[in-house]
Amino acid sequence: MTSSRAHLTDYARGLTPPEGWKVEVSGDLIVVTATPTTVHQRNLLVVRRQFDAHCPAELMPSENTDLASPHTGKLRNPDLTYIPLDTVELGGNQVPAELAAIAVEVVSPSNPENDLVGKVRDYPQMAIPLYLVIDPREGTLTLHSEPGGATYHRRWTGKFGDGVPIPAPFSFELGTAELLRYPA
What we know:
- This protein is an alpha+beta fold.
- It contains three helices and 13 strands; from the N terminus they run αββαββββββαβββββ.
- It has a single domain, classed as tt1808, chain A, CATH 3.90.1570.10.
- The strands form four sheets. It has a six-stranded mixed beta sheet with strand order 3-6-8-9-10-11. It has a three-stranded mixed beta sheet with strand order 5-4-7, with helices on one face. A two-stranded antiparallel sheet has the order 1-2.
């Protein structure tokens, strides 16, 4: 990581955002986003309960954990991720991004580009093997997989109500009939 990116990441780590906001770093940008609505939180709960039921014993769920990738200069904070239990031994609030089994995002109505463009670009570079995007604005879902370099090589898309084929290490079909769209 270049010294300017290291400086930016250090600076972002030192920020104390106002209540209801979170800070991320994407390349040369600090991204500040509002915390989620109740529809966002409910959808995340629906998804998390299913992932928890199929979670391998060596992984644990974590919400709003910083995933750090020093070699790319990226610090991202997914709504939900599953990380190895032994990452607790690392201490702190950051986990090496390449240890994450998946990143799950519920698209924010205030900043959809962050989840739909920025994280689609950043997560494969950070070596996160699966990226599930839930978009309550449109009622759609996208599962990105097989990261390689700067992109994911596979993409599954569907709509609320479709079953999402979640691969190993979870290996189940995610039910989405209970997901809610944002109010118009």
